Amino acid sequence: MKNRLKVLRAERDWSQADLAQRLDVSRQTINALETGKYDPSLPLAFRIARLFGHPIEAVFQDEA
Amino acid sequence: MSAEPQVSKVSPRARRALIMMIAGLPVGFFAGRWLLGLKRDGHWGGFDPSGGDMLTLVLAAFLVFAGLVTAGLAGSRKALGRRINGDDARAATPAQARFYVGQGLVLILAGAMLAAPPLAVTLFDPLSPLLASAVMTGLIALFLLQTVGNISQWMRSDELLRRTMAETAAVSFILLQGLLFLWAAGEKLALLPALTLWDAFNVTMIGYLAISMLVAWRRGFVE
């Protein structure tokens, strides 16, 4: 699954640690999401979408 | 023709780990040779563990060392922050420091539990039933304490870490159960030598540690 996390984060000038703190996860989780090594759970994906003020499908795209 | 600078795909942290691993090879080799030299010269006294027990003690020492380093990192929230946050130089939060201390303690406990049985049979030879029972009682107490510690760490972990732990457990179970079956079959058919339960445990522990490192690397914990 692809995501626009890195772009959305950069637009707000947030570091990975900033975003991690806002989502209550570790910075390693943000890094793993951005590098495509981990797909988030549905609750975390919704939290991310809400934080950036976008619908979930605007942040995450199915690669299939 | 312009020469573009080559961008290394290996992160500074991974490069440092690689350098440390390469530097560790000769250090380990010469330290081992020195220790064996001491044993040959009779400086180990009555301490003469078997090969399997020696392996357990090395594993236990590794776990205790890793635990001390992990818990020690939490001593400075600034240093821990650098470790966790990479380029972002913010200090670690108290919750992050507590998590690292907890993780360190769990590792130290695991090392102590691993070392206790081979140390007891090597240092107190022959081991009296009373002392064996005392060691076993202590081990059960430590095991309960460590289980509480593990559950507490699980509760404080985020979903990536929980996923990593769950994947490690699943892969370890499938691979090591398969390996155990093949060895047991070979033993039944008189093709392989008999393993003691302790030897089998050593193999599963080494397998578990190797698999956990592999899964953590695959999930991006090594940047």
* Number of beta strands of chain A: 2
Radius of gyration of chain B: 21 Å
Low-confidence stretches of chain B: 1-7
Strands ordered across the widest β-sheet of chain A: 1-2
Give the SSE string of chain B.
Answer: HHHHHHH
User: How large is the share of residues in beta strands of chain A?
Assistant: 5-15%
Structure summary, number of beta strands of chain B: 0
Shape of chain B: globular
What about the largest sheet of chain A?
A: 2 strands, antiparallel
Give the chain pair forming the largest contact, with residue counts.
A-B, 18 and 16 residues
Radius of gyration of chain A: 11 Å
Number of alpha- plus pi-helical segments of chain B: 7
How far is it from the N-terminal to the C-terminal residue of chain A, by CA? 8 Å
Structural class of chain B: mainly alpha
The number of helical runs of chain A is 5
Helical coverage of chain B, percent range: over 70%
Q: How do the SSEs of chain A run, as a string of H and E?
A: EHHHHHE
Low-confidence stretches of chain A: none
Overall average pLDDT of chain A: 93
| Assembly status | heterodimer
Decide which structural class fits the backbone of chain A.
mainly alpha
Tell me what the structure shows.
The complex is a heterodimer of chains A (64) and B (223). With 64 residues, chain A is mainly alpha-helical. Chain A has five helices and two strands, in the order E-H-H-H-H-H-E. Chain A has a two-stranded antiparallel sheet with strand order 1-2. Chain A is globular, with a radius of gyration of 11 Å. The model of chain A has no long low-confidence stretch (mean pLDDT 93). Chain B has 223 residues and is mostly helical. Chain B is built from seven helices and no strands. Chain B has helices spanning 12-40, 51-73, 77-85, 94-123, 129-156, 159-188, 197-218. Classes of the chains: A mainly alpha (64), B mainly alpha (223). At the A-B interface, helix 2 and helix 3 of A face helix 6 of B.
